[in-house]
Write a structure and sequence with these properties.
Distance between the termini: 62 Å
Strand order of the largest sheet: 1-2-8-5-3
Strand content: 5-15%
Helix content: 40-55%
Radius of gyration: 22 Å
Number of helices: 19
Largest sheet: 5 strands, mixed
């Protein structure tokens, strides 16, 4: 049995474990460079634990062995791709696994779309994506209002006061997601606070208690988790009942699901997934975007100039978002520099080949996105925050290949891009965003990358 150090392993190990449980992989070694098992039973899991996260383990592995590497998760082979060129080679009809859906549905004991009818899964996914699109269109004014409320809060602070960026962005994201997903009942801050309590209790256990079995050994924690999950599910069922067959002034995510042919359980599952994943991605994209702007006065000023040129003194509109080209570059560079989601996964359902190497059937193939996003062969000066790199069409194509732009981006990220654009249009035109001197920003690599500790900034009013 693994010891308590397993707590250091991130959400992504749970993803790997869930997939390998569903698809027992080949024991066949493929000749791909990499590690032999450190432990007969656990494979290279002790090495991953020692590296603190799967992302950091893969960074070290690719530095040592090159862009194509292998290692062992338990007694099963895993292959990792660490360059965009290899990713292009591997694009094939294999099924792409959504890390959020795979992990969250497995841990919440929901039916995963890894199994079941392909046509039904495609229909359900399309309905999910349409729900995100319609909810953004219908709730655009709401997102702007929430952004204005955050601006007013920051304007009320003394200029020297430190602002807890992570805390405020998570609160902003919670309000944005709950109200666009479930409607008017979450206009009450007490409902949002209650939701956040349940959300935090569920998310914290997803990160630790399931993998090492400690949740089952601690009855107090297990009860808190189960109670939070039951309360959150009860809330979602209540919203479903209230909105079924009725007309409201704002169309929200759950309304689209109700218009489909989904069961109540499927509606519950998809709303839960969007609520959990949408909050985390939106909060961290906004956090990193604002933080990186504090580190570059030039980028902040260029963004301000674009906002003034495109929007003038008026509010942002849905139609004008497409004109905010530099703002989109800032957000794309935020995703790249922060390595917002550092891993993706794909099951090698049929035997395949990459770079003259054979990948056995039923091998889990990891895309080391965090490695690819800072590969100097694809990104000049990869550690520099430079939105202007996306003036080059090749840079945008690379980002699209990695799933962070264009038709490949996940619905939760598309939602986050829109919300972050509205937020920046409100903040940057009224405030200067400043770093806190002496702050050292350390990164925590989980399913979504976040600051390890609170990120502090200060703000001052523009003349």
């Amino acid at each position: 049995m693994l010891d308590f150090a397993i707590f250091a392993v991130t959400f992504l190990l749970i993803l790997v474990g869930a997939v390998l449980y569903l698809y027992p992989a080949s024991r066949q070694a493929s000749g791909i460079p990499g590690l032999t098992p450190t432990d007969e039973k656990d494979g290279n899991l002790p090495d991953i634990i020692a590296s603190s996260s799967l992302h950091e383990f893969l960074v070290n592995l690719h530095e040592k062995y090159g862009p194509l590497v292998s290692f062992w998760f338990g007694r099963r082979l895993v292959v990792s791709l660490g360059s965009i060129d290899l990713l292009k080679q591997h694009i094939n009809p294999n099924r792409l696994l959504d890390p959020f859906e795979t992990m969250l549905k497995s841990l919440l004991r929901y039916q995963s779309s890894l199994n079941g009818d392909t046509g039904e899964s495609h229909m359900r996914r399309k309905l999910y994506e349409n729900g995100v699109t319609k909810s953004l269109q219908s709730n655009f004014a709401l997102i702007q209002k929430l952004s204005e409320e955050l601006l007013a809060k920051w304007l009320s602070l003394p200029e020297a006061q430190h602002v807890p960026l992570c805390q405020h962005m998570l609160g902003f994201a919670m309000k944005s997601v709950t109200q666009t997903a479930m409607g008017n009942s979450f206009e009450d801050d007490r409902e949002v606070i209650r939701f956040r309590r349940y959300h935090d209790a569920i998310w914290s256990e997803i990160g630790k208690g399931f993998l090492d079995g400690s949740l089952d050994k601690n009855m107090t924690r297990k009860k808190l988790y189960k109670d939070a999950l039951l309360e959150m599910e009860s809330t979602l069922r209540k919203v479903t009942k209230e909105r079924r067959g009725r007309s409201f002034n704002r169309h929200v995510f759950i309304d689209t699901l109700l218009q489909g042919s989904l069961s109540d359980q499927q509606i519950l599952e998809d709303t839960m997934i969007f609520s959990l994943a949408g909050c985390i991605i939106t909060a961290n994209l906004c956090t990193w975007a604002v933080y990186f702007l504090t580190t570059s006065e030039d980028v902040q000023q260029n963004l301000y100039k674009e906002m003034e040129h495109v929007l003038g003194k008026g509010p942002i509109t849905h139609e004008k978002i497409e004109q905010l080209r530099y703002c989109r570059q800032v957000l794309c560079e935020t995703v790249r520099t922060a390595k917002l989601t550092p891993i993706a996964a794909q099951l090698q359902e049929l035997e395949g080949r990459v770079d003259q190497h054979t990948i056995p059937k039923e091998t889990l193939v990891l895309y080391a996105l965090g490695v690819m996003l800072q590969d100097s062969s694809s990104w000049p000066s990869p550690y520099k925050f430079d939105p202007e790199r996306f003036n080059e069409e090749s840079a945008m194509k690379n980002l699209s290949l990695l799933g962070f732009s264009g038709s490949q981006e996940c619905p939760e990220l598309r939602f986050a891009y829109m919300v972050a654009t509205v937020l920046l249009s409100v903040l940057v035109r009224k405030l200067y965003l400043h770093p806190v001197k002496g702050q050292v920003m350390e990164t925590k690599y989980e399913l979504v990358t976040s600051p390890k500790e609170e990120a502090w900034i200060t703000v001052s009013k523009r003349n």
